[in-house]
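Workshop exercise sheet. Pairs work together: one partner reads the sequence aloud, the other fills in the structure field after running the prediction. Swap roles for the next sheet.
Pair: D.N. / O.F.
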Amino acid sequence: MTSVFCTIVPPHLLEHLAASSNPAVAAVARRTLVADAANRTNRALALPAAPTAVAPSAGPTRPKRTIFDAQGATELPGVTVREEGQEATGDATVNRAYAGLGATFDLFLKAFDRDSIDGAGLPLHATVHYDRNYGNAFWNGEQMVFGDGDDEIFLDFTLPVDVIGHELAHGFTQYTANLEYFSQSGALNESVSDVFGSLVKQYGLGQSADEADWLIGEGLFHPNVQGTALRSMKAPGTAYDDDVLGKDPQPGHMDDYVRTSRDNGGVHINSGIPNHAFYLAATELGGRAWERAGQIWYDVMTGGALTPETRFTEFAAATVAAAKARYGDGAEIQAVLKAWSAVGVATD
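Structure field:
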């Protein structure tokens, strides 16, 4: 099992900020890029994680959360500030991280009968107040880490619960399909995190697919930024259009697939295509997205049909097979077929 370093803010966006004419914005973006590069290298050099035996849950369970405070430093995990069952602290960031880990745990347990992201009660650890003005959040293969943002472009990274769900879902992928973080398999890795991050938010709010905003990272940008979120699953390429940030580059169809050597082959950019397919399937089916569309995607991730190098067409075919296996030849398989066709991905 390979664990990877996965950030919520893509390198291409930080690189754009690093070229800003505003020296303060540029300096923070450069520091974040340097920190991310160092963490990515450390993770790449780490020994592969040993496979873990996953036992079924023995009954009702609860999360095992620990929140640490890096206190502006970069050494992980930091000082323990809140553990499972303890009362809220006076630090809102700590409390949001604790609640977000719990919300993600709840989705996996109550919607999919999965005990934590590994299926075997994995303790959920998160570090807050990482570095100074750090403009990102990441999963490093073992835990969550949140920056405070620079209060000029990015606000506190614990504010959007879907950011927390997104990053923990990288752990879910790590313990299931273990999708390689490069090219189309990497874009699928990112998309699965967006899917389950969005479902964490929808589940917590009790929203139907039609009520959800389908935005990833809504509320993360400073009010002066011309943008609503980092990504839109409903309308890829429309999440932001700002003089400093640039324009959201995500495609929503294979006709616009971006071929690039940057960002591990465009994993954050091309994830817009499978993201939009999930949105289309979920809204076609209606109701609560985690109940049918989410269940199909979950079955694919846990069913053993995927390889680490899975491409879009293979993933799409797997969702069709999963829909048929669980629901037969009904509305579910038709919604999945229609969704992939709409984004230009073949299913056979």
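Discussion prompt: The two ends are 28 Å apart (CA to CA). What would you look at next?
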